[in-house]
Design a protein that fits this description.
Blueprint: H1 4-22, H2 57-70, H3 76-83, H4 90-95, H5 98-105, H6 107-119
Amino acid sequence: MPSKSVLNRFYDHIHHRFQNRRNPPSQSHRDPPPYATIPFKLHGISATDTPQWLWSTAQCQSWITAVAITLWNCQEEEAERLASMFHGSGSYLWCLESETWKAWYGSARGTSIFNMLRACMKEPGAVPKSITFDHD
């Protein structure tokens, strides 16, 4: 029979694992880890740039293309095809609801790009402070 200390250590280990499953550490106040340097840029725009409220259609499409290549692992031709679905300026990009993004890019990619936008909407140049959305 194992010694009491071995049993106690085993019990403590199992108890600790069980407690962590029941009460996982809260992630709500933690920022995601910083992005690694992302070398791909299209017309000076990378996937980790904050889309600007006053961007042109071409700039918005460059950002979407960069996201598709860098984060969705698309080939350039596919990324450009996906980006070409967007027609509008930066203000329109910010106003799109999750369902629109999902209709264009599918559930996973649509949710991804919508959440990326939500995460940086308070960054300088993104959404003016006077603007609010029903889908925040």
